[in-house]
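Q: I'm a student working through a structural biology exercise. My instructor gave each of us a protein and asked us to get a predicted structure, then write a short paragraph describing it. Mine is N-acetyltransferase domain-containing protein. I'm not confident about reading structure output yet, so if you can add a plain explanation after the tokens, that would really help. Here is the sequence I was given:
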Amino acid sequence: MNGPKKEGQEMPPEIVTARLRLRSLTTSDLAAYQAIVSDPSVAQPAGVTLPLSAQHAANSLRADQQQPLAYAVTIRPADSLVGTVIGYEHVDALGGLDRTAVELGYFLAPALWGRGIMPEALTGLLTTLTRIETPIKTLWATSLATNQRSQGVLSHLAFKLIDDQMMVPNPANMALERHLLYRYDLP
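A: Happy to help. First, here is the predicted structure for N-acetyltransferase domain-containing protein. I'll explain a few features afterward.
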């Protein structure tokens, strides 16, 4: 992991943990990105409409790359994408952009579920955010009420359950689904 940053610096280009390397998302990640989010067990909680076209996947990857935090999760020493950790811009209750918060989103290839990879990746991110100067002070995350794996990850990392609400995760089908809202305040 890189050392502390000065005010105004970008996030570190990579975060290294015991088994993982979180690095910048690149266009060369597109094939793996599309393959992972095309899996129904990943697409449904992520609100992705299937089938996912190559153009939609490319647009999604480009949009993710533009977010305040955008990391490809890789298992060292290999460098191929197995998941992502994205901190999306956060809009406050009044509709304004809150630069002190991000909406945390993440996914992992289902073949790697249950191995502690996502908790390790998110712990690396949280540790980095506490060690560097950053305007980010709060991370928000939502989980489908049926996604117990994601809830377990968030609870394990000391995210606090704030609300239980009905939301439309995917505007394509407009179905309301129960979501749990979590919050993590950096020390």
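A: Here are two points you could use in your paragraph. DSSP finds five helices and eight strands in the chain. Residues 1-9 have pLDDT under 50 and may be disordered. It's a good idea to check both against the output above yourself.
Q: Great, thank you!
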